[in-house]
Structure formats: structure tokens, C-alpha cells
Batch of 2 targets.
Target 1
Amino acid sequence: MKFVETKVDQLEKLSKNIWIVMCTVMVILSQVGYMMKETGTIKMHFNSVILLKTILVISVSSMTFFFVGYGLGTAADGGIVGDTHFAG
């Protein structure tokens, strides 16, 4: 039997995706805030180290979420964690 997606199902998918995007933006902005706090408390010639660390943290955490986190966070189907949708 072919599954026909209703407007309610489409709205539910859209709201879940909007929530994930909002949480992602908040996490990235918090990382930028931590970077500004750290660069304000150290000597000027160590600022590039803090910037590199922040860029590495954001990139590694984004790749980890892309490959593992999205699959665990969505499509649980009544369970605690999901078991599909890994690696994008």
C-alpha cells in the first residue's frame, strides 16, 4: 500500500526541521560567545589559537552531528533513539 503524505505529516516534518535548525543556530552562537570571552581574557598574540580552536570545535561537532547525531535524534518510532537516517 502506498503511503500518502498528508498536510499534517508535512507540517510535522517541517516543524521538526525548523526546531533542529533553531537549536543548531543557538549552539553555534554560544560557541562564538565563548570565543569572544576567551579572547578577551588572554594576551593579544594568543587570539589566533583561540580562533583556530573554535573553528575546529564547530567543524568537528557539525560533522559528528551530520554522521551520527541526526540519526540518533530523529526517527525513533516510539523508542528512545532513532536507528535510521545516519550520514545525512
Target 2
Amino acid sequence: MKIFISSVISGMEEYRAAAREAAETLRYSVVAAEDFGASPSSPQQICLAGVRDADVVVLLLGARYGTPQASGLSPTHEEYREARGAKPVLAFVQTGVTTEPGETAFIEEVSGWEHGGYRQPFDTPASLRAAVTRALHEWELSRQAGPVNEEELTARAAGLLPWASTHAPGSPLLHVAVAGAPAQQLLRPGELDDPALQEAMEREALYGQRPILDRQLGVQGSVTGITLSVRQSNAEITLDEQGSARVSRPARDANSRGHPTAGIPSLIEEDVRDRVAGAIHYAGWLLEHIDPTHRLSRVALACRLDGTGYMPWRTRAEVAASPDRASMNLSGRDSADSPPVILPRAALLLDHSSQAEDITVRLRRQAGR
């Protein structure tokens, strides 16, 4: 296994040596910038190639940011961006130092994307050596579940979407499914049955940062086989023992007098996008709740819009301009799909808006727009 050590070099020599000693004690091969000899390639090209060739990146963040390159980022920052989402990053942040503004922003970025993963403080070379040893050992244990099988992962995400029609006439349903990898049993039967889990799911769905259930409706929960279901009359959240989740909710509000989308019943693009984003964010919260140590590192995200019928697809501006006139969907399709995409797990919480935009475009193209 190859471990790439990423940090500024000047002023961090002792710490880089401590990280190297930890990795080599565990019989890993270390890749570091100071080992690269003369080459026709630029130092930047060599280091980024080293990141791509490594199995794990050990990132050391101290006081200095480093010299910005043509990209506007320091070499260490470029190395992190190259690794982020593609391979494990074990981040270690030095305490008791005053960080440069660029380093402060860099640490905030890393802290966000690696939230729930491995991010540990250090103050001396000895404390860093112990922390790196422990982190690499725990990472090796986490790999015992096996590598990520992308074909199997996407098949599991697609399999979470219901194929039979589940909507009432005029009430299309939006289904957002998330499966995680490496595939493994994440929850024991007793944990899935624990009332505290259901209560936490209900609380977040009703009162969390992005509520996805209607507070005016009652909520019921039950476990069938290996799946916990939290549901309302028009919505449902499911979670199974592998940590796979599905959020099903109405794609639109029923028209009523005085409602901003009153007029011809329509699918409103902004509403669909917001509801997809909320479902993705909820799935990200749920994984953090049941898997805080990140045994699942990658996810597949899939979406289906069920029951589109002849309903037109419009924007809020189009509805406001002409509430009682619209082009009907004549495609004959009753559903639209956004096929599974594989993402780093952190994207569920930190990139849910961008993912929702992409999914909404795919759904709009199929819904007769």
C-alpha cells in the first residue's frame, strides 16, 4: 500500500518524518515530495501523479499555506483537491499555531468535506506519529468489508426505486434513493428496531434543517424484514440494514385557491429541485447518524419521478405569467428517471444543491419538456 504525505515542507520537516515513520512501521510504502529526483516533468505534475498513484493521502495542516500556483491554490491544496472524493484522506491539524488566512480557509474546506471521517489534532511529532499510526490501522480495518463494487452499488440504488405506480392521480411522487459502499451490514436487527432510531429519523424529517415530512400529518413507523419504514399518508422514508435509504414525497403541492402555483396543475421546476435537494441532504444526515465513523465511503444516488402523466412542466415565472395556459406533456411517459451516479459520501451533505440541479435537468428532459 502506498501512502502519500501531503503538506508544506519548510517548517514541517519533523512532522513529515514522524508521519513517514508511522506509515513505514506498519510496512506501508511512503510517497513524499522530498523523495522525487530529477525529472523532465514539473514538481506539480510529479506530486499530483503521486497522489493519483497512492492508496491513501495523509494530509498535514499547520500554520503556513504555501505559495499559490497558477491555479490560485498552494501545492498542498492542489494535492488535496486531486485526492478528495477519489481516495481516503486522513487529515491532521496542528494546534497551538497561528494559521495564515489561506491556511485557515483550507482547514475549513477540509473540515467540511472530511466531516465524520478522520480529522485529528496534533501538537508534537510524537503525538502526530501516534495519530497517524492509529488512523492507518483503523483505515486498514475498515477495508476488511471489501472494495467498492460500482456495478453492484448502482444496481442496489436502482433497486430501491419502486417500479409499480405508487401515486394518486394528479399527485406525482418523487423518489430519491441512496445506497452506500463497501457493501456490508451496517445495522444489527436490534439497532434497526430501536425506537430511538425511529424517533431521530422522525425529528429530523419534521424539524431538521430541511424538513421533508408534513408537520400537520401523523407519522407511523414499522420494521418489515430488514427495512425500517417511517411514513405518512403521502410520503415515506425507508432504511435497511446496509444503510440504504429512500425518501418518497409528493413532487408538488396540491393546488388551492390563493396558492402561488394555482392554475393548471403543473410540475414546478424549482419545487422539484428543492425537494430533491432536501431528500439528498436528509439521506446524508441519516448516514452520519447511523455511520459516524464512515464505514460507508461511497454512495450511489438515483431518482425517479412517478406519475407525471400529461402534467406540464413549468417554472414559477411561467406560472406567474400565464397560470391558466400551458403546453401539456404529450410524451406518453408516466415517469422520469435520473440513473444512479456514484459520489463521495460527503457530497450528500455538501453538494446536495448541485446534485439536485443535475437530477432536475434529467427529469425535465424526460417529463416532456
